[in-house]
Every structure is written in structure tokens, then in C-alpha cells.
Amino acid sequence: MSVLGKKLGILLSTPPAHPNFNHALRLAETALAKGVQVFLYCIDEAVAGVEQPRVQQLQARGVKLFACAYAARRRSLALEDHAVLAGLSVVSELVAGTDRFVSFN
Q1: Is residue 31 part of a domain?
Q2: In a domain, 75, yes or no
Q3: CATH code for the domain in which residue 89 is found
Q4: Of 7, 22, 38, 81, which residue is 20 to 30 A from 46 by alpha carbon distance?
Q5: Torsion of CA 70, 74, 75, 76, to 10 degrees
Q6: Would residue 93 count as lying in a domain?
Q7: For the chain, what is the domain count?
Q8: Domain limits for position 93
Q9: DSSP letters along the chain, please?
Q10: For the whole model, what pTM was predicted?
Q11: What is the pLDDT of residues 38-52, one digit of tens each?
């Protein structure tokens, strides 16, 4: 079964130092390599990792990167140049509009 052209949504809420942050990024990298469209939404503690080079490289390679506007504002992070700031309605759209949706907490 080919996954080419499929859509994968990833919700990431852990801080960058947590192992699940790395697991989510590896999943995104693997999916991209197989031709999957990847949508990454960082919420809660994960917004602190949006500016990391590895995350930005994923975005440069085609990952659609979103950061929770509320979480970024609460942490005084200006991420406008690094990700699309969005609300929970985008998460709802990703759940409904992707072939698979996973969460790393």
C-alpha cells in the first residue's frame, strides 16, 4: 500500500527536551521521505521548540507548521516568523482533514 500523497497530522505538546518531541520529529521526517503531506501543530510546552533548527528544517522541507497562538502568547514567544499561529479550530480541521492524526504528549 502506497502512502504517497496521504496526509498525516501530528499534535505535539511536550517540551523539546522530552523524548516524545524527538519521536514526533522523526515521524514527520520519515513520513516526508515517503511522500506524505505532514501537518505539525505545536501546543503547550512544544511551542518552545518551534524555533529549533530541526523543526525549521522540517518546515523548509514541506511540513505545514502551526503553533498555538495562546500558548505562544502565554510564554511571551514571538513565533510569527517561524510558524503559522493558530487556534484550536485548526486542530479540529487537521483531525477531520488528514488520513491519520497522532498526538505526542
Answers
A1: yes
A2: yes
A3: 3.40.1260.10
A4: 7
A5: 90
A6: yes
A7: 1
A8: 7-104
A9: ---TT-EEEEEE-S-TTSHHHHHHHHHHHHHHHTT-EEEEEE-GGGGGGTTSHHHHHHHHTT-EEEEEHHHHHHTT---TTTSEEE-HHHHHHHHHHSSEEEEE-
A10: 0.95
A11: 999 999 999 999 999
